[in-house]
Design brief:
homodimer, alpha+beta, Arc Repressor Mutant, subunit A, Dna Ligase, domain 1, three-stranded mixed sheet, two-stranded antiparallel sheet, 5 helices, 5 strands, about 40% helix, globular, DNA-binding
DNA sequence: TTCCTATATAAGAACTATTCTTATTTGGAG
DNA sequence: CTCCAAATAAGAATAGTTCTTATATAGGAA
């Protein structure tokens, strides 16, 4: 899985600075590191993975800080919590409209894009006020298929 | 939320009998009760809810049996594990092709149907072998909107 | 029907993901 | 630099799920 382009990562970090300024949240080292970790990869890592990676550079960071920071980032709209496959929430810093291919064997989630975005179906207003639409394709990724 | 029609429940129970016969799994009282509980409602209940309801009629049923049975039913294709909203898996015995409206406030999941099913998008084969496609609409349900 | 045994179960301990508590530290305004 | 509300570290607590072990039972065989 290829990494996110450095310019894109830099732009995402700039959004973080802006969002902190706008909401009055402090721009702590921990927030920088945690967001950077999510922003630089497109593997939709879970909290434990992020915790371990951040801990390599910041050995005293705590679980709580990682979970709390991810929740804050989600509130600020900088990351999205993605469907959980087996008990663990996963996070995605890709703000573009996109969809997910979920491997039902290993849980890996890959982004894909549609040429034409589907519209919110008629009849949804009976159920509630729609805010977003996402297509999820489930299947077995190539890696798992080849064992 | 209206209940599932009795004839439909009966048909789902018939599928269970068939599936048990085909796979050599035993048709235990617990499996009957647990599946019946999922099959008769369309609220996509979570395991704890199912546990409590089954326990009313079967006071000694254990958590483990409920979780284990739901996993077996999923393997047999009789129920589907639905995206978790806040840590809890939810289950759905509606075998028809359908899609979900998820309330991001209360977690309630409602089914909806599309007049025309979307096809698996081109380009997915790069990621893996697709098996199913589901549209998820997120928003706030009427109940939550009116507090 | 009764017997047999692999499969399933109950009970509760254990495990895993996440959140809470409390004492301490720190970003950033003034 | 000083101050303090906000954020953090550490680890306890909680919630959801799975595992362990002794017991029970579905369903085939006799």
């Amino acid at each position: 899985m290829k990494a996110v382009a450095p310019s894109e990562v830099e732009q995402r970090l700039e959004y973080l600075r802006l969002a902190c300024r706008n909401t009055g949240m402090r721009m702590t080292h921990q927030r920088m590191e945690i967001f950077h970790e999510v922003a630089q990869c497109n593997e939709h890592p879970d909290a434990e993975t992020i915790f371990k990676r951040v801990r390599e550079r910041m050995p005293t960071v705590s679980h709580d800080t990682v979970y709390r920071t991810l929740a804050s980032l989600e509130e600020m709209g900088l990351v999205r919590r993605v469907e959980t496959v087996a008990g663990r929430a996963r996070y995605d810093a890709n703000g573009d409209t996109h969809h997910h291919f979920v491997c039902t064997r290993c849980g890996q989630i890959s982004d894909f894009y549609l040429e034409q975005e589907p519209s919110i179906p008629k009849g949804i207003e009976e159920l509630g006020r729609a805010e977003s639409l996402q297509v999820q394709v489930r299947g077995i990724c190539h890696n798992c298929k080849n064992n």
